[in-house]
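User: Please predict structures.

Assistant: First:
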Amino acid sequence: MKKTYISVALLLCMSISMVGCDSSQPVTSPVKEEVKPIASSIESNSPLKEDILKTEDVNLVISLLDNYSPSVLDDSVLEAKGDTYKWIWFNTLQIWTDDLIRLTHAKGKLEGKAKDAIIARLNTYFVPEESEEIFNTYFRKDSQGNYESIPTERFGKGTSSIHADLKVLIEKKGTKVIVRVTGTEYDYFDPQNKQKNKVDVEFDLIKKEKHYYITNIEHH
């Protein structure tokens, strides 16, 4: 098991070093280039690929990612002046969630008990039902009670791709808050013919005591 810990740690550290620790430095302006997730350099020939990721491995990944996670969501974020500060918080969460999913995807298989550790960490930011939905989007249970990785699109790329026209609209309805993040993404694939794409993401926040939890994420 010690060798597995070392392998997971080395994999994460290599990922961080190859992208310059971008997740630890959130973009301070919506017109800058997209922040790259720290897990973006995982190679398909990783030595972890054919094994099963244990609960201990998942806990290690979670602890190593803690430095890149946002604080809990509270009124200090929602009531901050200016849309950029709010966007930075949601963008940091998107990057952290994407990194968590991609790193726990690395082996292709996940120990059944490891699901609880992932769900518990997601529950810091999402309502339990949303955490389950996120997990089930990327993992499916096999006949032995473990989980297999599902090849699919990355988590919530929309908010991090905003380059201009950023707006964060917040509407409070009792204990529920509706957040809508909109803006423009520039497609630089063809420098001679820059394309503009609309970004429009909406979700609800449920308040419990002093904190808010995300649910009902929709990409329009």
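Second:
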Amino acid sequence: MKNLCTIELLTPKRNETFKSVREEEVATMIHSIWKQSEQGARCVDLTKFLFSLTLNIVSRMSAGRTFSDHEFRGGRKFKEIMGEVMALADAFVIADFIPLLKYIDLQGLCRQMKSLHQIYDEFAEKVIDEHINRRSQKAEEERGVKDLVNIMLNMSEAGSHSAEIKVTRLNIKAMILDMLIGGVESSSTTVEWAMRELLRNPCAMATTQQEIESVVGLDRNCLLKESDIKNYEYLRCVVKETFRLHPPGPLLVPHQSTQGCNVGGYHIPTRTRIFVNIWAMGRDESIWDDPYHFKPEIFIGKNIDFRGQHYELLPFGTGRRGCPGIPMGLSVTELTLAQLIHCFHWTVEGEVNMDEMYGLTVPGKFPIFSRPSWRLASKFPG
């Protein structure tokens, strides 16, 4: 599955084909925020808006349509299901340390996982069946629709004639789940932390707005495009600084040594589970000057990238085990942040709450409520 994602599904070229999806969904979110502000809303729940945005983008990329809160039986909402999945993924499992207890399910985790699996499996089966039915009705026309489920169904059909590619129904369901878990909360949380930092650092907010304004102005009769992002160096520095202080996951996916070795004067025995704490690396005073303060300018003029080549900044890991979804996640993060900053002035009452909540990702403990004020010269552009 990792090779399939890297070679076929999440390549930069494939990511480019979904550019219109991202631009449409971000524009829809901006319009919803603008509409609320025009109707006199004092504050908007940015956390809720950002989660809905990334869910819509990921669902359209994966299945060609947005997922509603009525997809799961029992009327359970997407955010609720996702929260339970993430909680199970980072739960402390006693049986990991006392193997004999795995037959008892002392904590009830296996029972909970089986229940969630059944709920998710019904949902994924429905999504796949929808695609198969449309393909049978529209034949070649439907095969041209390039959401990821359709792409994998094409590969599944081709796999019957090829020994190299064998994509099963189980692979497709796993891909949908991986996209939802890896793509929704991580992207929305990153944009949310960037907004929190900019709200409590008004000079950085003003600098970012001025940079965008100097390129496109305030009277442009359309919203920003992804193609504009390459012109905004300071905005990209804001994203890097957010990754440094608030990486999508505080710990990289754990690795296990296949044989004993020595690293930095320490002996690592065979089959040792190893965690890389990138949250701590971003606050290491031996690497960064004044590491606890948000200073995007530290990246200006420096060739520090976060794709795994510079070990002081590894939000997505590195090497073969690095995150294959970097192009998608970065595109969503940069475009969303640029639109929010360019289209609105943002104000909060009192101090911005920066408390964190423990998990596989580290979201803010409380939602972020902020008051938007339209910046552009004209009303919402068409």
